[in-house]
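Data follows
____________
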Amino acid sequence: MATHNQVRAIGYLLADPKIVNEGIEGEEKIIIKIRTVRRAIEGYTGQQYADLIVYYAGTDIMNKLKAFKQFDIIDIKGVFNILPTRKKSVCPTCGTINYKENCLATFVYPITVNRLGSYRDYIEEKQASPDAFLFKNYRENSNQCLLIGTVVTDPELLPNKQAHLCRYGLGVNRKYYIKEQTEQKADYPWVYSYGEQAERDFRYLRKKSVILMDGFIHNENVMTKMVCEACGSNYTFSSVGTQFTPYSIEYLSAFKTEEDLQKEEKLNRLKELSE
């Protein structure tokens, strides 16, 4: 599979960093939640702001990350990672806590990070909110993900009220070594394209197509099915699913050409006549 995975995120901390195993040399881990803002995109009417999870378990920039505080504005260059996890829910019938296995968690793994300031420093400018400040100053590059990957599922058009919506899986080999994830060789994000881009993706892409995507990362609420281990009740619970949506896409190789599409249409007509 093709390889390129680069994330640029500029946002402010929603809370102070969470530090796991603090003070234990070589075992410290840090989790930071930042708010970012996207650029405008044709056909997509979802949330303007996206909250991203930043996770780090190395040593090179650990002290720098630990020094950040709520409302600090930081500039991150890194990669995205997708790891298996389990999601917790409570049975509405009997109150038992259940765990859904084989779920996915997406986060940004920072390679470099810089503090640009703090929202507190700009309060005198009478910005309406930290979100408004973020939108005004950083929306062009607050949430950007550059990927080169291989399409691993057939694109499908999904029902959507506002505009055409196309979904497909993308395989992206890892090029950045993360010592605690040595067995993970690739990541598999879901791409959701909208509007005219969705129409083009559905028409021209297929399994093994290689694309260059300039997009953004965002989370959407999804309903997940669950069966209670204690009482056997079927129920659904709300969880978060991560999506990658393109600002633009360039088709690099193995995509359908107009000649390929004409051949497909001809074969389909012949098949219909023979039935």
Remarks:
- The chain has one domain: 4-257.
- The two ends are 38 Å apart (CA to CA).
- The helical segments are 62-66, 130-138, 195-204, 258-274.
